[in-house]
Design goal:
mainly alpha, 0% strand, ABC2_TM, ABC_2_transport, Nod_factor_ABC_transporter, membrane, ABC transporter permease
Length: 246
Amino acid sequence: MPSLVLAHTRYFVIESIRVPIGILASALFPAIAMLAFVVPFAGGDPQAATMATASMMFFGAMSGALTGLAINVAQDREQPWNPYLRTLPAGPFPRFVGRILSTVAVMLLSVIPVLLEAVLLTEATITPVRLLLGLAVLVASGIPFMLMGLLIGFLLSSKAAIAVSQLLFFPLAIVGGLLLPPAVLPGFVDTISPFTPARGAAELLWAATAGSTPDAVALVMLAVWTVVLAVAAGWAYRRDEGRRFS
């Protein structure tokens, strides 16, 4: 079984490299936002620059987790090869885990340009231990967005998945405080921000990388979103399985 998981992971990673638009989109959008907003306005403040770098890192990782996974799963369902693979004795587990691991790899690749900009162009500071902790938190915080991507991918066609995932991604990033600090958000947006999964992920990252105190409501809601989306993604998978193989 581990060899099958590795084989599927390798296949998905090679597939992503051969058509790198998803990786480029996940990496370039936060890098451009970093240059436009963080470097000129917060680059000279070590604390602010560190927290803003963490936000931009998760902005790219969230794109790979939500948009990338939603589109890839939806496209897989439309390929004739996919139903055949799901009928093999090994079952869907190796391919499913391989898809998740390749998504994590894309998430980690997407943070490299932002990290380089932070090192070269800002006063952001972080210890190696906090950096490793931040990367671990980034992957863990991406779980609800991967589940959201799976939910969309199992429910919708590839064209619809592109539109819906994008429509969800940008509002969640904005309301979650990834593009603007929560302190400068409009009052009504700041009120609902802690109830979004993006804000909970950001709070965890800020705590891991900059030592800030996380908002308790945001953390609780991140856990709630993870459970709800896990249940919803499981239901969507069983629904797809029943409609296509029963």
